[in-house]
Amino acid sequence: MTAAADPRPPQQPPGADRVAEASAELRALAGRLIRRLRHAARADVTDSQAGVLSRLERHGPATIVALARAEMVRPQSMGATLAALEELGLVERGAHPTDRRQVVMSLTEDGRARLTKLRRLREGWLYDAITTKLTPDEQAVLVEAVGLLDRIVGDEPPEA
User: Fold this and answer.
1) Quick check: 128 pLDDT over 60?
2) CATH architecture observed for domain 40-125
3) Where are the domains of the chain?
4) Mean pLDDT taken over the chain
5) Where is the stretch described as Disordered (predicted)?
6) What is the pLDDT of residues 81-109, one digit of tens each?
């Protein structure tokens, strides 16, 4: 009988059940952590707006279409998000260097300041939670685990 025709499930390595359970728990935990971080910031910008501010900070000015592709939304949705951010004074329009039909959006100084404030609120809550709820030994384990999680996640997926 060939391996492809074998009806038995493939042999699982030792501990595979524990890894599968940990994977499910980590996925659920990631969702709860994100909700707690959002709550900690209680921001006047939405998560999608904060994501656009962050992308503009990391990658610099971009067109609406490029931002929509990167954030995996329709250009119309990105236009609405950017209009709200522009109204708040967090982004500004500029001329495209080679195509006068396009607009380039960039982060304003107020946008940078808002992004910094959001990060401080979220990271402050997380720092307080780690230092008050975990022992020094547990904190050391967590610090090590962050490196492992970073290896799992890797770099951002390539932009479409």
Assistant:
1) yes
2) Orthogonal Bundle (1.10)
3) 40-125
4) 89
5) 1-20
6) 999 999 999 999 998 888 888 899 999 99
How far apart (Å, rounded) are the C-alpha atoms in residues 154 and 36? 23
Which 3 state secondary structure label does DSSP give 15?
coil
Query: Interior CA angle at 127 toward 121 and 132, to 5°?
Result: 125
CA neighbor of 124 nearest in space, from 37, 31, 30 = 37
Which run of H or E residues covers position 48? helix 47-59
CB atoms within 10 A of CB 104: 18
**Minimal CA–CA distance to 107: which of 46, 44, 156, 54?**
54
Are 82 and 64 within 8 A, CB to CB?
Answer: yes
Helix or strand (DSSP H, E) at 94 = strand 91-95
From the CB of residue 159, how many other CB atoms can be counted at a distance below 10 Å? 13
Q: Is 95 helix (H, G, I), strand (E, B) or coil?
A: strand
> CA 91 to CA 112: how far, in whole Å?
9
> Quick count: other Cβ atoms within 10 Å of Cβ 82?
22
* Cα gap 94→66, rounded to integer Å: 15
